[in-house]
Write a structure and sequence with these properties.
The protein is α/β, with parallel strands linked by helices. It contains twelve helices and seven strands. It has one domain. A hairpin with a 2-residue loop joins strand 2 (39-44) and strand 3 (47-52). The longest helix is centred in the C-terminal third of the chain and has 24 residues, at 250-273. It is globular and about 55 Å long.
């Protein structure tokens, strides 16, 4: 991806010498979206990451239909052309609530997570499981290193080694398919109960009612074009998202992003089965639009869910593996 390693090694906060700032710009400007709510930004020591939040479903579709969405710019002064985007200034990144990261480690991780999604666009379960295993690898290395900085080249080398996919943890979580449906129902119920936007909460409750009447599997089979749309959405929401640097940590943030994709696919199936939408593309866009309006714009809800994920121990590798196995077998793939 363009600019993936512009910060490494010469631009990392751990390196000596003057630092250059990299602006990663998601194309609200390219879409001629109005300033303000249309984009949000994260400011970290060496980057500004922008996340576009379109105001309408057609604008969201346009955003996700572009073959490339990242524009990386180097700037030489403190004047960053943010077009009025609300900014969240970040002074610390954490992998887990008890594990702060150096910025070089954070950038290596965030770039790698994007690569996992981009390289596995047709296999969302594989993309997110690779990301979770990447996070587990770094957690082990950072905890082992203690106060010492992790060597990024060694991280690369270790990550390139074969990493077999673990088997589902049936003893802890039950059969994967059952665990998946229990998980999405529970998360959707939590969103409906804690959402700040009541219209969003009401729509989620309506879909939960449909799920109660139709207990059969509701995950649809997506074609290649819709898979690409979903992968682009995940990449957009990874950028500029406070959940990946919140006190809850990157692991919880990554699990939330995975969870949002699971729920979006589940809602897509429910919309089709209830005849509220008749085309898969429309149902998928409807689901992603719900998430955009009701979750990602609601910072209080995002942080509430992150705390819930950590408190309920939903961020374990075992659960991620179990959900991913069920997701791969649900038919929600190209």
């Amino acid at each position: 991806m363009d600019g993936t390693h512009l910060d490494r090694p010469e631009n990392t906060p751990d390196a000596a010498g003057p630092a250059r700032t990299v602006v990663r710009w998601i194309p609200s400007v390219l879409l001629d979206l109005p300033p303000g709510d249309s984009a949000r930004g994260l400011v970290t020591p060496h980057r500004v990451s922008l996340q576009a939040l379109p105001q309408t479903r057609p604008e969201l579709l346009t955003l996700l239909s572009r073959p490339a969405f990242e524009l990386a710019l180097e700037i030489e002064d403190e004047s960053v052309p943010l077009a009025g985007a609300p900014l969240h200034e970040v002074h610390e990144a954490r992998l887990a609530p008890d594990l702060p990261l150096r910025w070089s480690e954070y950038y290596w991780l965030s770039d790698g997570l994007l690569e996992d999604i981009a390289e596995n666009a047709a296999a969302p379960a594989t993309a997110f499981l690779r990301g979770r295993l990447r996070l587990a690898l770094v957690e082990d290395m950072v905890r082992t290193a203690g106060d010492e900085a992790c060597d990024l080249d060694r991280m690369d080398a270790v990550w390139r080694l074969p990493h077999p996919i673990p088997a589902p943890d049936i003893e802890s979580y039950g059969e994967p398919t059952q665990a998946l449906h229990q998980y999405v129902r529970g998360l959707a119920g939590h969103l409906a109960e804690h959402a700040g936007l009541q219209t969003f909460a009401e729509q989620v409750r309506t879909l939960l009612a449909v799920a109660e009447k139709r207990r059969e599997t509701a995950f649809p089979s997506l074609g290649a074009a819709d898979q690409r749309l979903l992968a682009m959405y995940a990449q957009h929401r990874l950028f500029g998202n406070p959940c990946l640097i919140a006190p809850a940590g990157m692991i919880a943030g990554w699990h939330l992003l995975f969870s949002a994709q699971l729920v979006a696919l589940w809602w897509t199936g429910l919309l089709l089965r209830s005849k509220r939408e008749t085309r898969t593309r429309d149902a998928l866009l409807h689901s992603l639009w719900l998430l955009d309006q009701g979750l990602w714009r609601d910072d209080a809800l995002v942080h509430d869910v992150l705390r819930h994920l950590n408190a309920s121990e939903y961020t374990s590798v075992g659960l991620a593996v179990t959900l991913a196995h069920a997701f791969q077998g649900s038919g929600a793939r190209a």
